Amino acid sequence: MLLLSAVLLFPLVVAGQQKQNADSLTYSLYQQQQWDELIRVGTSAIRQGVDHFYMQMRVGIAWYEKQNYRRAIPFFRQARQLNPIDEAATEYLYYSFLLSGRIADARVILSQLTPAHRQKLGVEVPSVIDQIYIEAGPGFSGAADLKQQNKNRQQTDTIYNQAWYYDDLQYYHAGININVLPQLQTYQGVSLIAADATQTVNYQQKPEADFQPQAIQQEYYGNVQYTFFPGWKLTPAWHLTHTRYDVRNFRYDDTLGLVSDTLSMTRSDNLFWLGISKEIGIFSAELIGTMASFDGNDAWQAGFFANAYPLGNLKLYTRTGIITLRNGQEADHLIFHQSVGTRVLPSLWLDVSATIGNLRGYTEQNAFVLFNIPEDTRFKTEALLTWAAGKHLELSLRYRLMRRTSSYLTYINNEDFIVLEKDYNFNTFIGGIKWQF
Questions:
Q1: What is the pLDDT of residues 57-80, one digit of tens each?
Q2: Which residue in 358, 426, 382, 370 sits closest to 138, CA to CA?
Q3: Are strands 393-411 and 417-436 parallel, antiparallel or unpaired?
Q4: CATH topology (fold) of 16-121
C-alpha cells in the first residue's frame, strides 16, 4: 500500500516541485530585470501548465519593459481574467493597448476603471466630442511640358483637336470625432474642393479661345467604428459628393462653321464602405468592401490589408494591401498598396507609401479619401509627417504625387480620329491640425 501510494503521489510531487522551481526562477529573473530569460522561462512554464496570475504578470511585464506592448497584451489579459480586481494588471493592459496603437481597446478598458483609479493614473474618460480635425492644401499639375508638346502637335493637325488640362486645386476639410459609447465612435466631416481646368481646341489650325472652367465639389463624409469584441472592429463608412461644373461642346454649322455651347452640369456620387479588422499579436488583418455610384455608373471595390508591428509598438509599422476595383463597365483590375511608418523622433512620425494600379474611382482610409478624378491614374506615392506637438495638439503635413494620364484628341479626317495619351505628375500638399480633448 505504501508503494502504491508513493507511485500515485510521485507525479503530484514532481509537478509541485516544478511549479516551485519555475516560480522561484522567474521571480529571481524578474528582480534581476533579465527580461529575455524571464520571457523564455516563463513562457515555457505556462505551456507546461504552471499557469497562474503572477506567472502571467511577470512575462507580461518583461515584454512591456522591452517595449513590445503587443506581445505583452495576451499575458495581461490572462492575468486580469485570473484576478479581475487587480489594478496593476488593468493598468498594464490599458497602457499596452494605448502604446501599441489599439486606441479603441484602450478606451474600453478606461471606461471600466473606477473614478478613483482614473484619478490615480491621471486620465479621464474621453469627452463626447473626442477631437476636432481640420486639413487643407493646394494641388498643382506638372503639365507645362505636356502643354507645349501638344501645342507643337496642333500646328500639324488640319482638322480638329482638343485637350484637357487639370491645373490647380484647393482642398478644405473639417470634421469632429464623437464618442457615442466607449466601444462606439463616429466621425463626421465636410469638405470642399475647387479645381481649375483648361480646354484647348484647334480647328483647321485656328485656335479657339481657351475654355477655363472651375469645378466645385462639396463632400460629406461619415464613419462609425464599433469595437464589438476585444481586438475586433467593424467600420461602416460613407462618402457623398455633389459637383458643379461647366462643359463646352462643339458642333459644326454650315453657315457659322465651328460653334460651341456651354452647359452647366451637376453630378452627385456616393460611396459606401464596410471594413472589419482583427488584431492578431503583432499583426492585424482587415477585409474591406465598397459599393459606389459614379455619375450613374455602378462601381465596387474589395480588398485585404495586413498590418505588421515588428517591434510590438509604434516605432515601426507596415501596411500591405491587395485590392480589386471595377469602375463602371471597365474590367476588374488589381491595385497594390504598401506603406511603411516609423518614429523618427520621440514625438515625430514619418509614413511613406506607394499605390500601384489605376486609381480612378479608388478609395482608401475608411473611404475618407476618394479619387473620383476625371483621368486615369496609375501610380501614387505619399509622404506624411505627424508631430505630436502637445498633450492635445497634433500637426501633420502630407505630400502626394499622382501619375495621371492626359488625353489628346485629334481628327485625322472628317470621320477618323485618334486619342493620344501622355502621363504627367499632379502634386498635392495637405496640412492638418488635430485638437484632442
A1: 999 999 999 999 999 999 999 999
A2: 426
A3: antiparallel
A4: 1.25.40
What's at 96, amino acid-wise?
S
| CATH class assigned to 129-436 | mainly beta
Question: pTM value?
Answer: 0.89
d(CA 428, CA 400): 5
Q: How far is the first Cα of the chain from the last one, in angstroms, to the nearest whole number?
A: 72
Numbered ranges of CATH 2.40.160.60 in the chain: 129-436
Beta bridge pairs of residue 223: 187, 237
Residue 71 has which C-alpha cell?
506581445
Interatomic CA distance for residues 361 and 300, integer angstroms: 9
CA 37 from centroid of its chain's CA atoms: 37
d(CA 276, CA 318): 18
Residues of the chain with CATH 1.25.40.10: 16-121
- Express each pLDDT in 280-331 by its tens digit: 999 999 999 999 998 888 999 999 999 999 999 999 999 999 999 998 777 7
Average pLDDT for consecutive 10-residue bins of the chain (437 residues)? 48 56 92 96 94 95 98 97 94 96 93 89 89 97 83 74 92 97 96 95 86 96 96 97 94 79 93 98 97 89 98 97 88 94 97 96 96 93 97 96 93 84 95 96
Q: Which residues pair with 175 in a beta bridge?
A: 133, 189
